[in-house]
């Protein structure tokens, strides 16, 4: 449940973010886009070495590259964001690269919890560095999904309450084509994904993770292989974030607390109600399927 702390300068933009869980903004000019593309090209070899279809700067596990990219993105995107947002802090900036080919799609998911969402907001600022549409890996979002559950979203795994109806959520998701320099700011609680990149070149975007000013960055760790219900909460900063990419778990010295936790179950009907999204109409049967169904019903009465 986000947006308890307002982050946008414009009340209409804030209202759209609160309602849908995402909003698109004109963010970077051509020169700013070129600056970020140049930064990526300088460090392209380190990024490509990951060998994955979808990878980010943190996947390089190269702290020198991670810090250089982080600083450039915070400088370029952070300054541009001040025209649209207020009272925000940034954790980490990185490039998101989607290589071309089948299997490059990003499945429907939510981001981890990064703040206490009962008090603060956190969001991902995702910036297209060239034109992006459904042919080369654009994002899609399920409107209102950030309002459905206040449950914690843990790492490295998290129970997914919408697993049994995720395919239906994909069908109602809103695809968001973008021009170079445009950004989509979306709540980390918003359900989203991205299409395959079927073009003949990589798709490049820059992201910046932001939260309400004065919020404590944190991460919740859950070992799904254990039967215990305990969750560990860790303080999070850029150094911890980089270290996690290598170890898979935050350093014990940053642990804040440990507590038992039960993840909720949310039905499909309850989901649509809380998201304030119309329940999709039931698919009508063909005349042949209707005939077979009525025949089977008649047989059962004989």
In short:
With 302 residues, the chain is an alpha+beta fold. The chain contains eight helices and 14 strands. The strands form three sheets. The chain has a six-stranded antiparallel β-sheet with strand order 1-9-5-11-3-2. A four-stranded antiparallel β-sheet has the order 4-10-6-8, with helices on one face.
SSE map:
Elements: H1 11-20, E1 22-26, H2 30-42, H3 44-48, E2 54-56, H4 63-81, E3 88-98, E4 106-109, E5 122-128, E6 139-141, E7 155-156, H5 166-172, E8 174-176, E9 182-187, E10 192-194, E11 203-212, E12 218-222, E13 230-235, H6 238-247, E14 255-260, H7 268-275, H8 287-301
Parallel strand pairs: 7-12
Antiparallel strand pairs: 1-9, 2-3, 3-11, 4-10, 5-9, 5-11, 6-8, 6-10, 12-13, 13-14
Structure description:
With 302 residues, the chain is α+β, with helices and mostly antiparallel strands. The chain is 29% helix and 25% strand. The chain is built from eight helices and 14 strands. It has a six-stranded antiparallel beta sheet with strand order 1-9-5-11-3-2. Helix 2 (30-42) packs antiparallel against helix 4. The protein is globular and about 45 Å long. The N and C termini lie far apart (53 Å). 38% of the residues are buried. Residues 298-302 have low confidence and may be disordered.
């Amino acid at each position: 449940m986000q947006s308890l702390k307002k982050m946008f300068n414009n009340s209409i933009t804030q209202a759209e973010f609160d309602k849908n869980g995402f909003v698109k903004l004109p963010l970077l000019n051509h020169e700013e886009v070129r600056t970020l593309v140049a930064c990526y090209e300088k460090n392209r070899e380190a990024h490509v070495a990951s060998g994955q279809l979808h990878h980010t700067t943190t996947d390089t596990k190269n702290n020198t590259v991670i810090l250089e990219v982080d600083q450039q993105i915070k400088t370029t995107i952070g300054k541009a964001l001040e025209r649209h947002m207020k009272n925000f802090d940034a954790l980490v900036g990185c490039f998101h690269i989607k290589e071309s080919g089948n299997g490059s799609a990003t499945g429907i998911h939510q981001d981890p919890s990064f703040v206490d969402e009962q008090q603060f907001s956190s969001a991902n600022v995702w910036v297209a560095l060239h034109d992006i549409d459904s042919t080369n890996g654009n994002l899609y979002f399920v409107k209102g999904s950030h309002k459905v559950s206040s449950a914690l979203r843990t790492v490295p795994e998290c129970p997914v309450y919408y697993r049994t109806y995720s395919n239906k959520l994909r069908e109602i998701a809103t695809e968001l084509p973008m021009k170079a320099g445009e950004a989509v700011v979306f709540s980390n609680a918003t359900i989203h994904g991205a299409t395959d990149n079927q073009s003949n070149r990589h798709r490049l975007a820059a992201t910046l993770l932001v939260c309400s000013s004065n919020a404590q960055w944190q991460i919740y760790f859950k070992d799904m292989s254990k039967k215990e219900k305990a969750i560990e909460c860790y303080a999070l900063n850029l150094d911890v974030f980089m270290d996690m990419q290598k170890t898979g778990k935050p350093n014990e010295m940053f642990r804040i607390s440990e507590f038992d936790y039960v993840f909720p179950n949310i039905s499909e009907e309850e989901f649509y109600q809380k998201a304030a999204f119309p329940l999709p109409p039931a698919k009508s049967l063909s005349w042949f399927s209707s005939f077979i169904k009525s025949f089977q019903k008649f047989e059962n009465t004989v």
